[in-house]
Amino acid sequence: MIRTAFLDRDGTLNVKAPEGSYVTSPDAVVLLPGAGSAVRRLNEAGVRVVLVTNQRGLARGLLTPAGYAAVADRLRALLAADGARLDASYMCPHEAGCDCRKPRPGLLLRAMADDPGISPGGAVLVGDAESDVAAGIAAGVRTVRLGPPGTATAAGLLRADLAGAVDELLAGGLPPGHVTPAAAAAPAAPAAHAAPAGAAAPAGERR
Question: Distance between CA 9 and CA 88 in Å, rounded?
Fold first, then answer.
């Protein structure tokens, strides 16, 4: 049974900015259809919901720490309006050279280190990019890729959107597990990589 759902942000929960652009203001945060109710159903089923998001716009100077915090607050408010919540949030602010930017598993491993109740065998990552899938596999969790039918993916399950993925997960349709070194042992916390001062949840925010 799934006890923890790691969710990507842009393209999974909210509308993704055009290629090469970033969600830099609260006004640009628009939930994807059914995303809020999907998160609420996970909450109601007792599943931890943990956000894991790459935000290299911070490293590129295209997004300020205050801007990131405002976007994060807006996302939480929109989810709350649908009766939903995030239980924890983890963000990578780096361009490269870190262990937390997906497809590396650092964000997931940090969440597991912070909350011993998160077991790789009871966790799933849902995201719209293959880098999300790779991070999930590296962390030893099950994976769901969001995309149209026929999308090439290493994920255990492919669904069109978060609502469809949650339908399947709550019905017991678990994607195949991935046997990796990370799944065989308790995860160690990765080296700390702090976001720029003032950024929301640089190492992880639990609620």
Answer: 13
Question: Tell me: the pLDDT tens digits for 151-198?
Answer: 999 999 999 999 999 999 999 877 777 544 333 333 333 333 333 333
pLDDT at 182: 36
Active site residue 10: yes
What is the rounded distance in angstroms from the CA atom of residue 139 to the CA atom of residue 29? 28
Q: Which residues pair with 126 in a beta bridge?
A: 7, 144
3-state secondary structure of 7: strand
Please indicate whether residue 73 is annotated as part of the active site: no
DSSP state letter for 190? P
Eight-class DSSP state of 71: H
Phi, psi of 51, deg, nearest 5:
-80, 135
Name which of 181, 163, 144, 179 is nearest 35 in CA terms.
163
Q: Which of 8, 87, 132, 161 is catalytic?
A: 8
